[in-house]
């Protein structure tokens, strides 16, 4: 855990947002989108130096206050540590963005077991734990927003990314059901799921994540457009958001396709993109 970095020139603040995976990719763009709307920020990721650079940049550019929390969300203790940090600083979270996630490409039986368990811990367990920790405070204050980053992968079974896609299906299902619960409870808390398709971040090209997927650049969304779509849709009360008309239509078509057939089509396509993968 690191000390908060304070900034003197404060705009009219609207609350405090916590973003996991804030140091890069879509998470970094969520921070821009929230800071532009005058949210103070709690930035969570593993790399302290990157987080502090991002915090200094956001404070300088938007005049918001940023707090840096170094945490590995694969660790079961992480959500409790983040909660303790928030309490020690006397903060409360008005907007929670559960964004951090891991992805591994490749045949399940070839991928590292611990890596797949870490994926489940980050994508499912930490997301659920953080929501469970910060939701009661929002309900008590009768106001709050929680944005869960799922994926278009949530809608289909994806060979070579089977654990990732299954984890995102959990995120989507959990979010839709929780949104309805909160609506029925009249809590004033809004839950939203964002389902981006391929987005131009390190996640698509990270050599530490198994086989390269090789998605052509022209098919990738920009991280800034995805983050802006997610924040504005969440604030507007959308329960599920798929950025981009093409992707909305593709998902509708996939929903009308039998699941086993859809998986076969996607698997064939991914195996082509990834090159020869079959054992001799
Ligand atoms: N990129 C895509 O094509 C795409 C498509 C659909 C959905 N999504 C979803 O969008 C979200 C963001 O993805 P992205 O593409 O922006 O990913 P990214 O570029 O890989 O960035 C991931 C962020 O999460 C942090 N992080 C990773 N593992 C962590 C851990 N164990 N504990 C704490 N922080 C961790 C990373 O920082 P550190 O390494 O410093 O921890 C980084 O800030 C994810 O939920 C992803 O599933 C992405």
Biggest sheet descriptor: 7 strands, parallel
What's the level 1 CATH class? Answer: Alpha Beta
Class by helix and strand content? alpha/beta
Rounded mean pLDDT is: 93
Strand order of the largest sheet: 3-2-1-4-5-6-7
Could you say what the CATH architecture is? 3-Layer(aba) Sandwich
Tell me the radius of gyration: 19 Å
Bound molecules: NADP nicotinamide-adenine-dinucleotide phosphate
User: What is the tally of beta strands?
Assistant: 7
Order of helices and strands: EHEHEHEHEHEHHEHH
- How many domains? 1
Instruction: Please identify which CATH superfamily we are dealing with.
Output: NAD(P)-binding Rossmann-like Domain
Distance between the terminal alpha carbons, to the nearest Å? 48 Å
Secondary structure: helix percent: 40-55%
Q: Strand portion, in percent?
A: 5-15%
Number of helices, where a helix is a run of at least 4 consecutive DSSP H or I residues: 9
CATH topology (level 3) name: Rossmann fold
Q: What overall form do the CA principal axes indicate?
A: globular
- Could you list the spans in which at least 5 consecutive residues all have pLDDT below 50? 1-8
């Amino acid at each position: 855990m690191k000390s908060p970095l304070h900034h003197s020139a404060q705009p009219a603040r609207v609350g405090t947002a916590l973003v996991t995976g804030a140091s890069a990719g879509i998470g970094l763009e969520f921070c821009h989108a929230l800071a532009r709307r005058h949210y103070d920020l709690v930035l969570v990721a593993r790399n302290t130096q990157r987080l502090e650079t991002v915090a200094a940049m956001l404070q300088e550019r938007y005049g918001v206050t940023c707090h840096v929390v170094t945490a590995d969300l694969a660790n079961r203790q992480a959500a409790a540590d983040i909660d303790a940090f928030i309490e020690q600083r006397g903060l409360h979270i008005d907007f929670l963005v559960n964004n951090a996630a891991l992805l591994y490409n490749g045949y399940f039986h070839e991928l590292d077991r611990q890596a797949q368990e870490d994926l489940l811990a980050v994508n499912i367990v930490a997301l659920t734990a953080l929501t469970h920790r910060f939701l009661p405070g929002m309900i008590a204050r009768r106001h709050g927003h929680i944005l869960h980053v799922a994926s278009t992968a949530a809608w289909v079974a994806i060979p070579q990314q089977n654990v990732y896609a299954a984890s995102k299906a959990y995120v989507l299902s959990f979010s839709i059901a929780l949104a309805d619960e909160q609506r029925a409870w009249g809590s004033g808390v809004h839950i939203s799921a964002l389902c981006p398709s391929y987005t131009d971040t390190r996640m698509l090209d990270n050599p530490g994540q198994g086989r390269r997927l090789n998605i052509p650049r022209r098919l990738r969304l920009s991280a800034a457009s995805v983050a802006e779509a997610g924040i504005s849709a969440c604030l507007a009360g959308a329960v599920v958001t798929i950025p981009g008309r093409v992707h909305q239509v593709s998902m509708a078509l996939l929903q009308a396709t039998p699941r086993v057939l859809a998986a076969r089509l996607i698997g064939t396509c991914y195996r082509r993109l990834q090159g020869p993968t079959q054992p001799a």
